[in-house]
Each structure stands twice: as structure tokens, then as C-alpha cells.
Amino acid sequence: MKLYLFPPSGRVLGIVALKNHLALDCEVQPIDLGRGDQLSPQYLALNPNKKMPTLATRGKSASRQAKGAKADDEHAG
């Protein structure tokens, strides 16, 4: 697994805390928004929405925003 994140982001704190609590073997890849890393072809292939954080595993990826939107839709329905 590889976790792409923007370290100073408040959204990342809970995710990193959970990763550490569960002792997950997960490579952390910092993304520099100021440098535009989220616009690179490699990152866009993982997450075309350019959102963070993104978890990539076995060639698939998921972002927190995508999962949250799905959960919101399920609760609204």
C-alpha cells in the first residue's frame, strides 16, 4: 500500500493516526501542493480529482473524498 498525502493537512492527521494505530505496513508519499505534485501525470492516473489523501493498493486507488461522498449518498437515501 502507498498513501499519498499533504503532510500539513488537517485531513491527514486522523488517517495517519489510524494507520499507525493499526500498525499498517504502508509507504507514505508526501505530495507538495505548492509545487503542483497533484497535477503530475502519475498522480492524476491514481486520482483524477486531484484530491488528498489517496491510498493506492494493488493498482487501485481511493481518496477520502470519494469514500465520504459515497457514504453521504447512502445516508441521504
Task: Kindly state the number of beta strands.
Answer: 4
Number of helices: 3
State the separation between the terminal residues, measured CA to CA.
Answer: 32 Å
What does the main sheet amount to? 4 strands, mixed
Instruction: Examine the secondary-structure arrangement and name the CATH architecture.
Output: 3-Layer(aba) Sandwich
CATH fold-type name:
Glutaredoxin
- The ordered string of helix (H) and strand (E) elements is EHEHEEH
Main sheet strand line-up:
2-1-3-4
* Unreliable runs: 65-77
Shape: globular
Relative strand content: 15-25%
Structural class category = alpha+beta
The CATH top-level class label? Alpha Beta
Explain what this protein looks like in three dimensions.
With 77 residues, the chain is α+β, with helices and mostly antiparallel strands. The protein has one domain (2-76): Glutaredoxin. 40% of the residues lie in helices and 21% in strands. The protein contains three helices and four strands; from the N terminus they run βαβαββα. It has helices at 10-21, 41-46, 64-76, and strands at 2-5, 27-30, 54-57, 60-63. The chain has a four-stranded mixed β-sheet with strand order 2-1-3-4. The longest helix is centred in the last third of the chain and has 13 residues, at 64-76. The chain starts with a strand and ends with a helix. Residues 65-77 have low confidence and may be disordered.
List the helices and strands and how they pair.
Blueprint lengths: L1 E4 L4 H12 L5 E4 L10 H6 L7 E4 L2 E4 H13 L1
Parallel strand pairs: 1-2
Antiparallel strand pairs: 1-3, 3-4
